[in-house]
C-alpha cells in the first residue's frame, strides 16, 4: 500500500483550486459539496464557476498564480493545462507542508483524489494511486451496481442510535451481531420498501429486547498454502467475524491481512528446536482463555487443519472443556503445490493413488513406520507427497531407495508453493539431496515423488522452474 487512505473533514476549511476550466469546476463543485471553503484562482473561469461565486458558494481570485494564494489553505489542487503552473503550485504547497494534487500527474501529487461511491453518510473511495484512473472508475462503476441506495439511510439510522447501541450492547461481539442483524434483517427490508418510520420502530424494538451474553467459540480455519486467492469464502467470513486470530508460522501474511482490522492477532507458531508439546499446550490455553471471555476465536492454520495440522488434538481439547467450535477446511499443500507446479497427483497413465506423509516420520532411522504400507506406496504408479521435508532429504532419499523406488524416479520439490516466490526443482531421486543443496531450497517446501513429477517441465505454468539432469549440471549452472 503506497498511499494511506484518508477521509478529510474540510467543512469550513480553505482549499485552493488553481485553474478555471471544466476540470477545476468539477473539483470545486465536489469540494463545495463537502463543505470546504473553496478559493479558485485563474485568469478566466467557466460560466458555472462564475455562477457559483455569484451565489456565494466559492470565492474567485483572478490573475496568475502566486504562492500567497496558499495562505490559510489546508489542501491545494492544480487543475490547469500549463505544466509550469502546476509544478509551481506543487512546489509552493510542499514548502508550506500543504498536501497538493496535480490533476493527472501522480509524480507531482502528495495526495490523490479517489473515485467515489456516494451512499452518504457511507462513502467508498477507490484509488489506483494515480497509476490507472480508468481502472479506479471501472471499479467504482461495479460497486455502484452492487451497493443498494438504501445503505445511506441505513448508515444514518445506525449513526442516530450509535450511543444507544453501545449502551445496550457493551461487548464488541454483541454490537457486531446487532449490526449484522441491522444490515440483513427487517430494518434494511423496511428501508428498501421506503418505510422509514417502520424501520426505525423495528430498530428500537430490537434494542429494548434483553440479549443473553453470547458464548465464546473457536473456528478452526485452514488458510491454504499462502495464495490468498485460494482462501474459501467461509474462511474469509470467519476471519471477518473474529475477535481474536491465533495464527501459525505457515499462515500467509496476505491471508492474515484479510482478517478484521481490529481483531487481536496472536502468533502461536512453532519454531524449529523448541518444545512443540509445550507450545501446543500454550495454544490450547490461549484458545480457552479467549473463548471463555466470550470472544470469537479463529485458529488460523496454514494448509488444512486436519492434514498434519494437529487440528484433531485441538478439537479434542475444546470438546473436553465445553467450548463450541466449527471447522473450515483449507486447501492442503499437496493439492495446491502440485496444481501450481503443473503436476497431477493422479493420472490415468501414470499414478492411480497418492500418499501424504511427513518427512520427519517417514525418514526415521529405526524404521518404526509401517513397512508394508511403505512398500505399497513406493511402487510404480504411486505418488508420494512429503511435508516438512527439507532438513530430512538425505535420509528420506535413502529410505525411498531402500523401499524399492528406482534411482531414476522423478521428483519435484516445490518451494514457497502458490506464493510469489515459488520455485519448482525437478530431477532424479538419486540426486535429490545434492540438487536441493545446490539450488539452496529452503522451507517451506513440499516434495513430490513418482512418475507424475516428470510432467512438471511440460505442464509448469506458475513461478520458476528449475530442471536439473544431474548434480554436476546444477553446480555448473
Automatic annotation (TrEMBL):
Span of domain Sirohaem synthase dimerisation: 151-207
Protein biosynthesis listed as a keyword: no
Any GO BP annotation: methylation
Keywords noted in UniProt: Cobalamin biosynthesis, Lyase, Methyltransferase, Multifunctional enzyme, NAD, Oxidoreductase, Porphyrin biosynthesis, Transferase
Keyword Nucleotide-binding annotated: no
Chain ranges of the Siroheme synthase central domain: 121-145
One Gene Ontology molecular-function label: precorrin-2 dehydrogenase activity
EC number: 1.3.1.76
Tetrapyrrole methylase domain span: 217-433
Pathway per the UniProt entry: Porphyrin-containing compound metabolism; siroheme biosynthesis; precorrin-2 from uroporphyrinogen III: step 1/1
NCBIfam families: cobA_cysG_Cterm, cysG_Nterm, PRK06136.1, PRK10637.1
UniProt similarity note: Belongs to the precorrin methyltransferase family.
Name used for this protein in its record: precorrin-2 dehydrogenase
Lineage, broadest ranks: Bacteria, Pseudomonadati, Pseudomonadota, Betaproteobacteria, Burkholderiales
Gene this chain is encoded by: cysG
